[in-house]
Design brief:
Blueprint lengths: L2 E5 L5 E5 L4 H10 L7 E5 L5 H12 L3 E5 L2 E5 L10 H6 L7 H8 L1 E5 L12 H9 L3 E5 L2 E5 L7 E3 L5 H12 L4 E5 L5 H12 L3 E3 L5 E5 L7 E4 L4 H13 L3 E5 L7 H9 L3 E5 L8 E5 L8 E3 L11 H8 L5 E5 L10 H6 L3 E5 L2 E5 L8 E3 L3 H12 L4 E5 L1 H4 L6 H7 L3 E5 L3
Parallel strand pairs: 2-14, 3-13, 9-10, 17-18, 21-22
Antiparallel strand pairs: 1-22, 1-23, 3-5, 4-5, 6-8, 7-8, 10-12, 11-12, 14-16, 15-16, 18-20, 19-20
Helix pairs in contact: 1-2, 1-7, 4-6, 5-6, 6-7, 8-12, 10-12
The structure holds uridine-diphosphate-2(N-acetylglucosaminyl) butyric acid.
Length: 425
């Protein structure tokens, strides 16, 4: 089912529930490797292709993985295979998250260099530099990273950039290092706190403080643990934007408002109408979107959290294609994340890419066309544009979208959208 037909023009109506966060679940799944002979139970795990890939990777290493509904159990043997199979790492860059736990706990890891991907070059130099500072020996041979260590030592590590993956890999490595590790200039994404909660559940002392400095007290052994994956802030915001772009009246349930402040602030500036409800009487936090006129043009710069997320940049640009004026969106995380702009232009949008900035001149209408997703968030942006366009949009390469959006077709249909999946002949 790799094509979605979207017949646009219907204002969405109803309620949609946010899935568990892909980018929280993936590092937490990798962290189970720290548990020798013990178990991890994880609730609210989304049903996504990237989760299946991580499951396959862990199974290839010897972990017994079971899934029932949105709950997963990871039963870790006393010893695991420390080699990450190349096809899985090629399929998903987040496979590199097994590096930290493997080197720390089993003393070795062999990982194919992840290489570039459709949104940019995405090196892992900061992950490796941190591990070397903790005492690991790292060599590159034939396109593979070979890392080994007797026992890592806690260190003060300064990250040259607040990389999400490097922060996660080093937190996991530090959990089994001797002594305390202090990681400075860390990522502050909410997914980092979810991983910290899991490590605490395993018996590790982790202080995150939310200030970009994380202290991890290494331990000599771990205990079985259970945790819940936080709601997916990017998925929630994608549906909020679907409501805004169709002039709909929808409620997105199970959101953490402080995780999505950046989007809400920019939507407010652009004149969108919405209300945030705090959890009470057993109900969860939710965001209700109300119909409003055209968006006002705005300027956005993507930044690490709490800045505007790069993972929402394409969807936000799609929303601004019909704003009443010229918007500017600067991409500061991934150099190749404007692939979808040419596709939106085929639908009648007026987007000019100047260096790392998209200059978006608002148009009165978008028209359905056949467009192709080059990555996950690009695909989401094209679906949003299709919902707000006249006529039928065919979004090809839906396999990218299913890496990060559980049942997006069914969820949109439940909101009244006219969407259907088709296999490409
Ligand atoms: N970077 C380096 N060296 C490194 C690591 C990162 O130069 O060793 C650079 C990257 O090239 C990039 C920037 O730092 O320019 C940010 O990369 P980061 O490491 O923070 O990203 P990541 O951990 O590879 C995660 C998400 C991405 C999300 C980014 C930024 C997961 C599994 N992936 O990637 O999610 O875009 O953080 O927030 O958590 C997505 O879900 O669509 C997605 C791409």
């Amino acid at each position: 089912m790799n094509k979605m037909l979207v017949r646009g023009g219907t204002p969405l109506k109803g309620r949609v529930r946010t899935q568990g966060a892909k980018n929280a679940a993936l590092p937490i799944m990798a962290s189970c490797l720290l548990l020798k002979g013990q178990k991890m139970v994880l609730d609210n795990v989304p049903d996504l292709q990237d989760i299946d890939t991580m499951t396959e990777l862990l199974r290839s290493m010897g972990v017994v993985v079971a899934r029932e509904g949105d709950s997963m159990e990871f039963d870790v043997p006393e010893d695991v295979s420390c080699e990450a199979p190349e096809p899985l790492v090629r399929k998903m860059r987040a496979s590199s998250l097994v590096l930290g736990p493997l080197v720390a706990r089993y003393g070795r890891a062999i990982l194919p260099m992840p290489g570039g991907c459709s949104i940019g070059s995405r090196p892992i130099d900061l992950h490796l530099k941190g591990l070397i500072q903790m005492g690991a020996k790292v060599e590159m041979r034939g396109g593979f990273v070979h890392a080994s260590a007797d026992r890592l030592r806690g260190r003060r590590i300064y990250l040259d950039f607040p990389s999400v993956g490097a922060t996660e890999n080093l937190m996991m490595a530090a959990a089994f290092a001797m002594g305390e590790t202090i990681i400075e200039n860390t990522a502050r994404e909410p997914e980092i706190d979810n991983l910290a909660a899991v490590l605490r559940g395993m018996g590790v002392k982790v202080d995150t403080e939310g200030t970009g400095c994380i202290r991890v007290g290494g331990v000599d052994g771990f205990r079985s643990c259970k945790e819940r994956v936080i709601p997916d802030r990017i998925e929630a915001c994608t549906y909020i934007l679907a409501g805004v772009m169709t002039g709909g009246e929808i409620t997105v349930e199970d959101v953490v408002p402080e995780h999505i402040d950046a989007l809400l602030a920019k939507l407010e500036e652009a004149g969108a109408s919405f209300s945030v409800s705090a959890a009470k009487n057993g109900a969860e936090n939710s965001v209700a979107v109300h119909p409003a006129g055209k968006l006002r043009p705005i300027s956005i710069k993507t930044m690490p959290f709490p800045g505007f997320p790069t993972d929402l940049q394409p969807q936000m640009v799609a929303a601004l294609t019909k704003a009443g004026g010229v918007s500017f969106v600067e991409e500061n995380l991934f150099q190749a994340r404007f692939s979808y702009a040419a596709e939106l232009n085929r639908m009648g949008a007026d987007i000019d890419i100047k260096g790392n900035t998209a200059v978006i001149k608002g148009v009165d209408r978008l028209d359905g066309a056949t467009v192709s997703a080059a990555d996950l968030r690009a695909g989401a942006a094209l679906i949003l544009a299709g919902l707000a366009a006249e006529g039928v949009t065919r979004v090809e390469n839906m396999e990218y979208v299913f890496r990060g959006y559980d049942a997006i077709d069914a969820k949109l249909r439940a909101l009244g959208a006219d969407v259907v999946l088709e296999a490409v002949e």
